[in-house]
Design brief:
The protein has 177 residues and is of the alpha+beta class. The protein is 38% helix and 12% strand. The chain has five helices and four strands, in the order βαββααβαα. It has a four-stranded antiparallel sheet, sandwiched between helices.
Length: 177
Amino acid sequence: MGRSRYHVLGTQPHFLTCTVINWIPLFGKVEFTQIILDSLNFLQCQQRLTLYGYVIMENHLHLIASAASLSKEIANFKSFTARSIIDLLEKNNSNYILNQLELYKLKHKTRQEYQFWQEGFHPQAILDEQMFRQKLDYIHNNPVRRGYVDDPAHWRYSSYRNYIGQLGLLQVELIHV
């Protein structure tokens, strides 16, 4: 994991971001986004990660999550999803994207051909209710700020629907603030 000025503080919820290398917009493809959703669902079902909020955008995702070992679980998540997406790209002969993942790979990553995720995940501990609300609002309004939807409920790759009593794509631990 890359060096960061952020550190995980215990098992409390953290706001975190995972970004595709060079901000390549790959999550417009449902197959890739489904890999992300399935992986997060697996971690939750295995009780390795508690998810409080999420949004998946075209080239990054934000989570509010906690775990007994958050750094380890996010590293496993990023490793598994990167391998799965790269395997799918290779299977589909998506050479242009694979070339991009090779081109933007950090030079010190000599044991791998491609790099999917940027290093790190920038965890920020959620210190109080106000911060939780601010981060959750930020996550849910990300697609609105980007101009993709007018209402956060219209973005299917988000926990917003969970918080307004509708069925979301993933289960989340609701915190009513």
